[in-house]
Design goal:
Keywords: Signal. By secondary structure, the chain is an alpha/beta fold. The protein contains 1 helix and 8 strands; from the N terminus they run αββββββββ.
């Protein structure tokens, strides 16, 4: 007769608990570390964001001029800036792009890898400047300097 006794079920539960408790302790210890120190000492500041290839750089601070590339399109359209303004270009696509003035190469970001940012300085002469992505020339935009 093959009968399971309450004792064998208890043994299995103890084995499972014996395996789970150490794993839970490791998780709790790892999650409970804190940068707050009670002895008044300070911790070192966090490292600045990485700009290595493939890393995502956060967009610039509020108040800066931003041109966004997303889904193979520039925004806003058109972009109006002051003469000589520094424009930060945020590439939200996974593929590289540029923002390059069509006439006289009045500005050019160079290649901006996917998830990265680049900058260009707007011309100092007021006017309307058409630009493209030299990699994907169907991508167009207009910069108005006024």
């Amino acid at each position: 007769m093959n009968r399971t006794t309450p004792r064998s079920g208890t043994r299995r539960r103890r084995q499972v608990v014996g395996l789970l408790v150490p794993a839970l302790l490791v998780l709790v210890t790892a999650c409970s570390s804190s940068s707050d120190s009670s002895d008044g000492s300070s911790t070192s500041p966090a490292a600045p964001p990485s700009t290595a290839p493939g890393s995502v750089v956060p967009p610039p601070a509020t108040g800066q001029v931003v041109l966004t590339i997303s889904q193979f399109d520039f925004a806003p359209k058109p972009l109006t800036v002051a003469p000589g303004a520094v424009v930060t270009v945020v590439n939200k696509d996974d593929t590289p792009h540029t923002a390059t003035a069509v006439k006289d190469k009045a500005f050019n970001t160079g290649t901006i890898e996917g998830g990265q940012t680049g900058t260009f300085t707007a011309p100092t002469t007021p006017g309307t400047y058409n630009y493209i992505c030299t990699i994907h020339q169907f991508m167009t935009g207009t910069l108005i300097v006024s």
